[in-house]
Amino acid sequence: ETGVNPVYGIYSTIVGTTVAAVFTSSVFMNVDSTSATALATGEEVAGLGAADQLAYIVVLGILVGLFQLLFGFLKLGFLTRFISNDVMTGFLTGIGVLTILGQVGDLTGFYSDAGNKVFKTVDTILHPALIHMPTLAIGLLTMVIIYLADRSKYQRYSYAIALIVSTALVAILSLPGVATVGDTTEVPRTFVSIHLPDLTLIPKLILPALSIALIVLVQGSGVSQSVPNPDGDYPDPNGDFKGQGIANVATGFFGGIPVGGSLGGTAVITQLGGKTRWANIFTGLFSLLAILTIGPLIELIPLPALAGMLIMVGFSMINVGRLQTVYFTGTTSVAVMIITLVATLFMPIQYAVGIGVLLHI
User: Fold this and answer.
1) Spatial separation of the C-alpha atoms in residues 160 and 146, rounded to whole Å
2) What pTM value is reported for the model?
3) In sequence order, which residues have a C-beta less than 8 Å from that of residue 74 and are 6 or more positions away?
4) Using CA atoms, how far apart are residues 207 and 64, in angstroms rounded to an integer?
5) Pick from 217, 273, 275: which is nearest to 244 by CA?
6) Cβ neighbours of 177 (radius 10 Å)
7) What is the DSSP string of 133-173?
8) 226-283 confidence digits (pLDDT tens)
9) CA distances from 160 to 2, 137, 301, 306 (A)
10) Which of 47, 95, 133, 356 is the most exposed place for a label (fewest CB within 10 A)?
């Protein structure tokens, strides 16, 4: 949906996640390409050829990283204090809902032409005859397996079990029309080389990079400040700014999509029992190992299985405790939260947060 080659997202995980895990103040925050950064990047490279698209992504990632480093060194982390709990709750809940709605196409096999994820979902519901039932069945089966495994002694392996079972089932039954990863992209068999930035693109991409940097920092602050470190203290926002900045500079040189704090990725890391920053480091390293050794097997993974997994992640991103806290705070807080949530669903993320902050003030 973003118009960006998904291979660039793989490079983001390999480089960005690994580097950020070393340098951020947050121990558990997973830093990766998110729906927000992918969509924002897609807007900037829309209509470009493969070579030009890569050139733009390289410069964009480096500039985003430099802006983040600047914000960190200027100690602008205090500005995140102006983003109240009701605004952040509405924003993070909206991101969770968007994560769920963004999987409707892969889950059902029907890709609506509507312009927004909410409208795409409504359009899909209104056209049940266009839903590919085998595709939907695999997606629902994946979700059921995760749900059941999460309530068993195999909780830590629920996602892996669901993915293996669904992939094996599609391969054995040769289900017609069920799309796989290999149908949409070819998983690279070698790691990408370093790319030097085209300096002539800098003037054109300064403002887009600044916008993405702000999106990433707001989203990252929401993630890191919702998950305390093992010692019980919350991470230093300025340290997270710098860590994400270093990660984005590195990711840019390798041609990856800009990265930021991922609420869904962090939820998975903590749910699977991550105890130290090595959980995120190994996530990036194992991603590299996977494309070098089992690329053909990765291409067999059904898209509805991945959609089902991400839908379950999306639900885990919706923090019921935070919603209850806002509810009992008062009518004004509830109103600000709802408006921020709705704005997140229908507007660019930086505008949604801005509107929420202004309303709170």
Assistant:
1) 9
2) 0.80
3) none
4) 10
5) 217
6) 9
7) HHHHHHHHHHHHHHHHHTTSTTGGGHHHHHHHHHHHHHHHH
8) 788 988 888 888 999 999 999 999 999 999 999 999 877 888 888 778 889 999 999 9
9) 26, 18, 12, 11
10) 47
